[in-house]
Structure formats: C-alpha cells, structure tokens
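This part of the workshop introduces the protein records we will be handling. A record pairs a protein's sequence with a compact description of its fold. Comparing a sequence with its tokens is the quickest way to learn the format. To make this concrete, we reproduce a full record directly below:
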Amino acid sequence: MDGFEANDAIIVIAATNRPDVLDPALLRPGRFDRRVIVNLPDVRGRNEILKVYIKRVKSADDVNLEKIALGTPGFSGADLENLVNEAALMAARANAKRVTASHFEEAKDKIIMGPERKSMVMNKDTLVMTAYHETGHALVAYYLKSRSDVHKVTIIPRGPALGVTAFLPKEDIYSSSKEDLLTEIAKGMGGRAAEEIKFNRFTTGASNDIQQATNLARAMVCQYGMSRLGPINFGHKSENPFLGRDWGESRNYSETLAHEIDVEVAKLINSQYELAKQTLVEHMDVFERCAQILVEAETLDADEFHAVVNGATLEDVQKMQHAKAAAAQTSVETANASAQASQATPAPQDTGLSAGQPTPAPSA
C-alpha cells in the first residue's frame, strides 16, 4: 500500500461485507486496488465447508453431508458453521451421544424459520386463520411452479410470526427472469388472498408479505426495467457516503414520472394478487383439505405437504409423522449404542512387535 516510503515486506489485507460504503479514496490505485469478490458457496463449496466443521462434532452414520449441502442453498460459510453448532446443541439437549441427521434437520428449521415459541398459546380462530394463510403461500408457490420448493409449513409460532411457510430453492440461483419475480410476488400475496377467499376479511398477518412484494415490484420498475416504462433506472444513489452510513437516494425524475412509477408498481402487485386468488379458487378442494389438515397436524414438511396435495388424509399424514419420529429415535439409539461400544472396546495390547516383524513361534 502506498505510503511515505516503500516497504515490500508488508502486505495489507482487509475484508468487508459492505463495499458500497467504503471511501473511494481507499480503493484508488496504490491502495486497495486489487479486489477479490467472495460469493456465497455453491453446492460443492458447501459440501467442502461442512467437511471442515463436521470434524468438531461426533456425527452418526446417517449424516449425509452431500444431502445437507443440497438442502442449504443460499447458506454462507458462517450459516453452515451455525448449522453444525445448532445440530450439536440439539443432540446435547436430547442426551444423544452423536449428532444425527434429524438433529441437522431441526437445526436447519431453526435457522430458516426461527426458534419455536412453544409458550405462546393461540385461540382456535387465530390458528385456523393462520393455517389458511400459510396454506395460501404454499399452494400458490406449488401451482405456479416457483423456483423454490416448499420446505415446511407450520402454524407453530416461530420468531415474530404466528406461522411460517419456508421455501428452499431447487438449485443455486444466480439470476431471475421477469416471470420468476412475478411468481415471487404472487407467492408472497398468497396468504392475503387465502384470507379474502375463506374469510372475506384481512388481518395484519400479511403486512410483511405486502412490504416484500412492494419492494420487489418497485425494484422491477426502478432497477430492472421490467415494466411499461422501459429499461430505465429511476433513482440516483448518492456518492461518497460516510463510512458506516447507508446509501442515500435522491429522485432524479419529475412528480409526473413518480406517479407513473407508483401506478406500475400497483399494477404488478394487483395483477399477481388476482393470480394468487384465481389459483386458490381453481384448486379449492386442495386448499380446504390442506388447511384443515394443517390445523390438526400443526406442521407439514415437504413430503407431507406434497402427499396432501395429491390426496392424502390427516390419518395418512399422522402415519408419516409417526414413522419419521420412530426413525429419528432409532437413529439416536443406534448412534448412542455405537458410541458406547466404541468407548467399551479395549485398546489393542502392545505385543512389542513392529510392523512387518514375524510373530515368534510358541516355545515347546
């Protein structure tokens, strides 16, 4: 790095998650002029990262790192480290000697959806409303063929939410088309659409969904050029921000154009909201069955959700859940038995022979 005098023996390295707020003077030639962008790991990278962190814990034989890597798209290295740590904590709470695949699944749910608020008790009406709301998200994503599969649908409160529908991308996503983004908006509005169809009224539960849909629609209009206004970027980012401050944004367009932007954003959201309602109405029998089963089962994973869509009953779902719980318990017991057996096995006695030395014949 340039200074008052040259010193070839020192290499200066820095890292940041916010390159957008750095002073441009730091990035000019002679200073931090060589930049290496580290993106989120792909499936192969996630597998290699997991191999490093899994060495810190004792894992059971049913832990498949390749499967975990495939099921964690979008996870950073820190997320994967947290996943292993959370799985180890889950195993410790269950008095398991080794971390099993079921512990990793529980840990992933906690990271994606937030911790369960088991102490919170909701009345029946709120449970039913939440079940239909979350079912709306899941079914709209399913029938519109979203690039993200349903990972889990639950009406058990997690984090700040009364219920959660968690999605996982089918593969690593590097870019999105207009159709992909429109599907995301429809998926986000599926909960509110379900409330209107079933109860003909709305709750505040859709507030975050509306906010995310609005942000995405505005980005389509102002940043991605995916509207009638054409491929134009609206809004001017302020230059040379103070270190640690967010970018400021100033309008570089007229009030008339601002109104047109608002109109385009509203069109995108309203059209996808109507598509979400139409999708649920067209599959009303599945919508009703899925929501009613969710009220009783409280949580549906991907396999159970797809089974319900294809006609499974509550009894079928309960059998699936009992089988998975039994398999998870068997896995823990097997891992514990394996750990105890390895501890009980005595160390091989030293015969005093080196490798390759023949065993002496017994004396007469």
